[in-house]
Design brief:
Length: about 160
């Protein structure tokens, strides 16, 4: 092994010994996601609408019909994942799809009456869930935490090798 590889391995080992798992963003995000998923199931008391489907329905309710591309961008979801989700939601009649009136090559998605009803059944529980998740924080810290999460989520990806 070369001297450079030995130094890199030694540096990595030192970093690993100092690493605090509880300070790792990936570890914390997984903990938060697990907590959220468990609470979502227990607080909403349903399994019909997943958290991602909740986002789809909320976006369509608030912004009206939109193309699948615009919806994917709005909820930060890749188009393949969204396409599969929209198929399932269409089959359950939570949304409807039709050709876009200005561009026949794209589809327009809209929430149905059944989708609106299903969403309204979950909204109060979703608001309660938000309060439960943020309960350990003061009001000021809640707003700051959410702003920080949004800033990280919406920041452009770093350059490779940066």
């Amino acid at each position: 092994m070369s001297v450079e590889k030995d130094e890199a391995a030694s540096s990595a080992a030192a970093l690993a010994r100092q690493w605090k798992l509880e300070n790792g963003i990936g570890f914390l995000l997984r903990l938060l996601e697990a907590k959220y998923d468990g609470l979502y199931q227990s607080v909403t008391r349903q399994t019909d609408i997943t958290p991602r489907q909740f986002g789809v329905l909320m976006a369509l309710l608030q912004q009206g019909p939109m193309t699948a591309s615009d919806l994917a961008e709005r909820i930060s979801c890749d188009r393949n994942t969204l396409s599969e989700m929209l198929k399932r939601m269409t089959a359950r009649r939570l949304i409807s799809k039709k050709s876009h009136p200005d561009d026949r090559r794209s589809i327009q998605v809209q929430i149905t009456a059944k989708g609106t009803s299903a969403l309204m059944a979950v909204v109060p529980a979703a608001a309660r869930l938000q309060d439960l998740m943020l309960a350990p924080l003061s009001q000021d810290d809640r707003a700051h935490f959410l702003r920080c999460m949004l800033a990280i989520a919406k920041s452009p990806p770093p350059e490779p090798g940066a």
